[in-house]
Amino acid sequence: MTTIKRYGKATMIIALLGTSAIGGTAVAKADEVKGSYDANAVINFIPNNEPTLPVDPEEPGGGGVTPIDPIDPTAPIEPGTAGPLSIDFASSLNFGTQKISSTNETYYAYSQQVTNEQGVTSNKPNYVQVTDNRGTAAGWTLSVKQVGDLTTTDNVKNKTLPGAAITLDGMTATSTTTDTLKPTVTDSVTLVPNSAEVVTTAPVNGGEGTWVTRFGSSQTLFDDTAALSDDGTTTETINKNKNVSLVVPGAIAKSAANYQAVLTWSLSDVPGN
């Protein structure tokens, strides 16, 4: 700072060298930067072996961000398979209590009931859920096999239902994962006992994150009257899915018994085309 006497008054002159004062802030010129130094921000990802919870088949919510609790019509829900490439959930199929018939009949599966985080129960299409947390984008293939005919363990004459066939229709693969190729689904699959049927395939560079293959949608669900007692006198309204059906030929003999078959879902690291 310099003080100069002029006309008998003292005047102060502030010398600003290489800066400008605007609003009290001094901003250095670019050509006056005397050096720079780069630091790094780092994160390292590894494959995730933790199980992934089931998600809403119509609103996946980003790979488990908004999990739901599916309700199994026949048994407690089993946890998903272990590993970074996993089957997280698959709907069990309940075709209800039906009267014995000598004509060809088509029965529809109960829809998948789920309970959200607020405890509200709703009906959803049946589905299977796969998660790929390997971090390799190597692709995968999902298939299902019906183990044998529908069979009963009851002490009755007709132990199996040969020719009865389950069909999974109207398939859609959905996820909120971005920047990955979408898996391909088979339009319709009719299960042949002891034969594996391919349902969904993810190509190389595809199928990362959590993916749901659902059978139908909310538009294919409908309310139907279902029998609760063996004599059919007690009924209730059940929500069912038109895209999951069981055809039972009228020509096969049936006993008054409970028939069931295991549906085995398999996931391999073989990519789709």
TrEMBL record:
Stated name of the protein: WxL domain cell surface protein
Keywords: Signal
Endpoints of the signal sequence: 1-30
Superkingdom, taxonomy of origin: Bacteria
Low complexity bias locations: 66-79
Stretches the record annotates as Disordered: 51-83
Keyword Thylakoid: no
Source organism per UniProt: Brochothrix campestris FSL F6-1037
Family matches, as Pfam families: WxL
